[in-house]
Specification:
40 strands, Udp-n-acetylmuramoylalanyl-d-glutamate--2,6- Diaminopimelate Ligase, Chain: A, domain 1, homotrimer, UDP N-Acetylglucosamine Acyltransferase, domain 1, 28% strand
Chain lengths: 363, 363, 363
């Protein structure tokens, strides 16, 4: 279950420097590492890492076997060191070694797999899962317990679906994706034509197309397109409880955190990020490399990279209330200040013998 | 799989006008239509439509077999035309023809149906679904794979539940409803009595009563009432990830978009709409025909139709920050302006020989 | 199915005072109570209660068998009275009697229970549930239909999981918890290291540890820790569609209402509350006994108890727009007012023969 410290160093391209206490480099290299932990929690069979200066104090006290550190922390590190340029990236790489293992190949006897579904080599289908007619699962795909795969769905090789996932018919998932429990992909977009008798349903005829290496958080929902398709680019990461409406498009390698929403036909560029609980209005287009703050409402297209925020800061309720009630008179206040400025300008003009001072107002 | 163009025209009450290129009306009427697509994506076996002027340019380039258009676009349409007053409504109607087919009647052998449940004619129960004692399912009801129907639930004729839906005991669903994957109806409301030892659970004894033709989006949750019932009117549409707390009431034909929330005992009128991520506070009452903006917080009852919004616009973060910090001094600023006005008024009174000018302040 | 009124009085420590109309106390005590309802809906076999003055009018008209009331309402109560100090608490206690019964012990034949799972006495496992290897379920635990319990999960005695719940491997749930339908616990935190080729997944190696008597609302998601654990204290109540990110900590007896979110490593103290749709930024720490308003964004740590709010009030859209556009010029406005004040001060200084008046500006 463990890994030799020297092997981990080699795998990361890190320099192994044996710690104090008489240990030589060879003995240090033979130490077996069974896990990773933060400096203050790591035990003698674990590796730790320091990715920011704020953990340097904890490093001094660590009981870990060894630490991933940058050059400048060598002296302060009381244990064996694995020195590399980016300890955070090193840590990220090593997590693979200790991740939960993939379940074994095979279809659980309680699963229901349509005779017209095609399963690649090494596919795992968990208990009570169901796979519809015409579905095609690539090699190494994992379908978690109780997940429902609709007709004509395609899933690329080595993608993993956790428990209770629902994929509607025709959905396309790329390779090496990870869909967490409760995810829904391909549900109907919110499309209704108003009539005198109420809403008339617009059946949603598009699909959802998801690229490779996309991760989708628990209970996140992605609607199918109305006519065209909803599209999620390669490498996109969606957190939990995110809502992606019909015909949205998300560019490659964008990251959308928990409880964000994109309204219908909104398009987010590549390499963007959205802070928690933020939302994009329908039919807008956001450029590449835009960062959106948490709980921010984006109501218009953004055509330049940058960081965008809406809303106010928070404050203690009694203070907040005094200021918030004033917000409703803000337009009035601007007009009152304009009048004061005009009055002031008039008085100054009088004092200065009619020579006007430049207006105070900044445009 | 296709439909004659002439038949579609008749169904919609549209006028078929054969396009240029020598085709006569009879030959045009015999064309087989196999789908609907937007003007720029439609192929020669598909119908397209133009519901707004912004698509008129795309119409000129369309390769569709025919287009649903208004009278004024006849000349600009390069393909066969189906002329009618409301192409969007026409499109909505035709989507029914191309919608996913209803699954066949029958109970999957892996489903668990209590002996004391009553199933109407033509009911479909998917794999690994379960139906509790005393549940009554109307004719033509569809229960998706892995859906759980609690005891004493009633579901009206032709309602469709997708995969992984959970209905708690006693829930009542109307006819012709559509519940998307992951929907939960009848979970406990958030009711606790505070005591010195922590919260004491208030068991939730009410039900959820849902009218006819209600659509509920993926992973949306509707809590049962504490004592009275939670009530959703006929024709109501709820989008994905919506939260409806205990004892809420929603009037007929209201539409609530993604990630909105209604706190306990809030009441929304008929024909209302809520933009994405907006919320109603508990125990408030919103009149009929009220539109609520996206990410808007409604903290008090609204008794007049209209559109209501809270929050601020968004801006680039460095600009936003400068303004947002000022929000916390807004009340001060109003007082400062009042003092300036008083001062100004005093000076003007002095200049005018004691005659007061009207105050600048607007009430 | 019913309970003697005298027995209920005894159970609550309430004083039974027979109503008008000739009934004596003994006859009143023998009345059978079959349910609880609000004053205006209660029938002659039901008990009602008045917890706030606003229901006193409804009490005068009630058709209930009896009412839980405070001393001061005895005269106004037209039916038998159960007099006690806190009728709301009394009502909360009595709801237990009418709650849905626990399902009987036993494992449904369609459930899949790993041979290496350990089930306590009286455990119920519903249809199509699955229990992984090494899972340990305490006495009286209920696993709802279609729920998936991962490997090495532990669940304390008498905890109840409703339908379609997903627990990832290693999750620990305390005793007497209630997890509603669609809940996900132990999904991966949103952890990725940015690289030139896109995001590198940081496998999430921590667990989720949940205390006793925790209730978790429908479709709520709680991520596992990255290295350390995500921790939910005893008696915590989470409403529907809440998002708890990796490494969050929630102190005992805090209550988080619908659609709230906590970003990674945020810590909420004991006895706190969060109003609907509010959010905590990552890595912040909120003190004990803090109340956070609905739709409020908390971006910094809070070290003092109190109530905190962000955002603005709502108003009719045309009014709102006029004020909201001004928000973007708020910093300018402050500068303009400063200039006016300086000018005013200068003029006053002139009038006063060079003697400066105190500045108008409040700090």
């Amino acid at each position: 279950m463990g890994f030799r410290l020297a092997d981990l160093a080699e795998q990361l391209g890190a320099r192994l420097i044996a710690g104090e206490g008489g240990a030589d480099a060879e003995a240090a290299g033979d130490i077996e590492i069974c896990g990773i932990a933060n400096p203050d929690r790591a035990g003698p069979a674990q590796l730790t890492f320091v990715a920011s200066k704020s953990y340097a104090a904890a490093l001094a006290r660590t009981r870990a076997a060894a630490a991933l550190i940058t050059e400048d922390l060598i002296e302060q590190c009381p244990v064996h060191r694995l020195v590399l340029a980016d300890p955070y990236l090193g840590y990220a790489r090593l997590t693979t070694l200790f991740a939960r293992p993939k379940p074994p190949a095979g279809v659980h006897p309680s699963a229901v797999v349509d005779a017209a579904a095609m399963l690649g080599a090494g596919v795992h289908v968990g208990p009570h899962a169901s796979i519809g007619a015409g579905a095609r699962l690539g090699d190494g795909v994992v379908i978690g317990a109780n997940s429902c795969i609709g007709e004509e769905v395609t899933i690329g090789a080595d993608s993993v679906l956790c428990a209770n996932v629902s994929l509607y018919s025709g959905v396309q998932i790329g390779a090496r994706c990870l869909l967490h429990a409760g995810v829904v992909v391909g549900s109907d977009g919110f499309g209704f034509a108003p009539t005198a008798e109420g809403f008339l349903k617009i059946h949603q005829l598009g699909r959802v197309i998801i690229g490779d290496e996309v991760e989708i958080g628990a209970n996140t929902c992605i609607d199918r397109g109305a006519l065209d398709d909803t599209r999620i680019g390669a490498g996109v990461k969606l957190d939990n409880l995110v809502h992606i409406a019909h015909n949205c498009e998300i560019g490659d390698h964008s990251a959308i955190t928990g409880q964000c929403g994109m309204a219908g036909s909104a398009r987010l560029g590549k390499g963007c990020s959205m802070g928690g609980q933020s939302g994009l209005a329908g039919h807008i287009r956001v450029a590449d490399h835009v960062q959106i703050g948490g709980q921010t409402r984006i109501t218009k297209s953004i055509d330049r990279p940058g960081t965008y925020v809406s809303g106010t800061g928070f404050s203690e309720a009694s203070q907040w209330r005094k200021n918030a009630v004033r917000f409703d008179r803000l337009n009035d206040l601007f007009k009152r200040v304009e009048r004061l400025e005009a009055d002031q300008a008039g008085q100054n003009a009088g004092k200065n013998g009619g020579k006007m001072k430049p207006a105070n107002r900044q445009q």
